[in-house]
Design a protein that fits this description.
- The structure is a single chain.
- The chain is an all-alpha fold.
- It has two domains: 55 residues; 72 residues, Orthogonal Bundle (434 Repressor (Amino-terminal Domain)), CATH 1.10.260.40.
- 66% of the residues lie in helices and 0% in strands.
- It has seven helices and no strands.
- The longest helix has 58 residues.
Length: 163
């Protein structure tokens, strides 16, 4: 017959292992979730550092900083050749000026407006983001003087007499 002390010792070991396993599995799940969060944060920081480096290069080269849009707006964005041309006309810019504002070449703007190619990635984000820019702000970003407003001409004709 086994010794009572050894049976108790084995039972205590078994129960303690069970308790430790239960507490460590909870912690293990939390550690995995935290490591995933840290990984996402690292990727986000790396992306932001890359973006900062690109912006520094643009500043050094004297180019205007690109205008970006949030990811939600990109999913909803509907851009076609007509809307790109309408946006450029709303800002009262030439194709070359619009290209400089978006940090692309003039032939790229021409291809977008003719429907031969479509903007993707950062350029799509810039096009969506530029929708919120006023003509004055666009010209300021390009270092151009503001557009003079046209005065409305009054129609000459009969005026109603006050009684």
């Amino acid at each position: 017959m086994p010794n009572v002390a050894s049976v108790l010792r084995e039972e205590i070991k078994r129960l303690s292992r069970k308790e430790i396993r239960q507490s460590t599995t909870r912690l293990k799940g939390k550690v995995i979730a935290l490591s995933k969060t840290v990984s996402r944060q690292r990727n986000k920081v790396a992306g932001l550092e890359k973006e900062i480096a690109q912006l520094r290069k643009m500043v050094m080269a004297g180019k205007p900083a690109p205008i970006a849009a949030p990811a939600e707006a990109l999913k909803k964005a509907r851009l076609g050749p007509r809307s790109i041309r309408a946006q450029r006309n709303r800002l009262k810019l030439t194709q070359a000026q619009y290209a400089k504002l978006l940090c692309v070449s003039s032939p790229t703007i021409l291809a977008w407006e003719k429907g031969k190619s479509t903007p993707r990635g950062e350029k799509l984000a810039a096009l969506v983001g530029i929708r919120k820019v006023s003509p004055a702000e666009a010209r300021q970003r390009l270092g151009l003087p503001p557009v003079a407003r046209k005065k409305k001409k009054r129609k000459k004709g009969k005026r109603k007499k006050k009684k």
